[in-house]
Amino acid sequence: MASEDVVGKRSESAVTTIVNLAEEAKIAREGVQAPSDALLGICKSLAAGGIAGGVSRTAVAPLERLKILLQVQNPHSIKYNGTVQGLKYIWRSEGFRGLFKGNGTNCARIVPNSAVKFFSYEKASKRILWLYRRQTGREDAELTPLLRLGAGACAGIIAMSATYPMDMVRGRLTVQTERSPTQYRGIFHALRTVFVEEGPRALYKGWLPSVIGVIPYVGLNFAVYESLKDWLVKSRPFGLIKDSELSLTTKLACGAAAGTVGQTVAYPLDVIRRRMQMVGWKDAASVVTGDGSSKVPLEYNGMVDAFRKTVRHEGFGALYKGLVPNSVKVVPSIAIAFVTYEVVKDILGVEMKISE
């Protein structure tokens, strides 16, 4: 009996050892796989967001190009007079491809921009929430609209700065026409030409109003969207919300409201940015001034000077040139981005909150 007890204890000990070793091996495997799984999840999320952004931007590319043309056209030589007339003029003068000029650069810019913006917002919001909870001493505290505005502003500034050269050449590719003496043949040709002929600093012309512009635009985009969703879930006004999960239509409405508020507030800075981007481009004169006159100044000594000269020569309304087509594209752009993201997310198995 004694020998049997000894054998039994040894067997139990061996089984325990094997179980412990198996658990340790599992933990080790999980420890090795966790970083790669996390990286794979991030890549899938970025891919879903990038595809959604590219599809939505392509769908509204004609309105995007018309907006930029309205922003920089000469008030003494009007070519584009309104949304419908402007689209018809582009179709007649440049054909179908003219409606999508510059869209390749725009789409190429979307993936890294969305990647940096999403990543920066998540990191900034978590850090701000941690500091806020530490300051208030409340572990259950949530981000306020103002804190979301700050996190969104940080994300917008980082994303804009990281991808600004692409945005700069996109503006030039969009503005050039078949009559321009010199043609940019594509994204990289435009980047190289600007770098060689105008210097590396030229790739960041208009950067300051752009950065200032993303503070209200991206900041309000995140803040209004997420705060509006939280308010709908918690208050459930008029009995529209039955549970904590918002419908796709409700999310689209929240996104449209956020985009409309943000772009309306920041739009004048976008106009100034585009005009500053054209400075130093000799072929821009044929586009911006039309008849080659010097009535519209092409040289700006900074953002404030650009504001002053634009208002002085063209009036305050010039700061909102192209606002109508820009506003018209907000709702369909957001709708398409949400639907596309949901489809790609399901295909890739991504679980990620859309915050723009």
UniProtKB/TrEMBL annotation:
Family affiliation: Belongs to the mitochondrial carrier (TC 2.A.29) family.
Protein name: Mitochondrial adenine nucleotide transporter ADNT1
One GO location term (cellular component): mitochondrial inner membrane
Location within or outside the cell: Mitochondrion inner membrane
Keywords: Membrane, Mitochondrion, Mitochondrion inner membrane, Repeat, Transmembrane, Transmembrane helix, Transport
Keyword Transport attributed: yes
Residues in Solcar repeats: 40-127, 143-231, 246-347
Pfam families xref list: Mito_carr
Membrane topology (UniProt): Multi-pass membrane protein
Record bears the keyword Membrane: yes
Main location: mitochondrion
PROSITE patterns per the UniProt record, alphabetical: SOLCAR
Source species, domain of life: Eukaryota
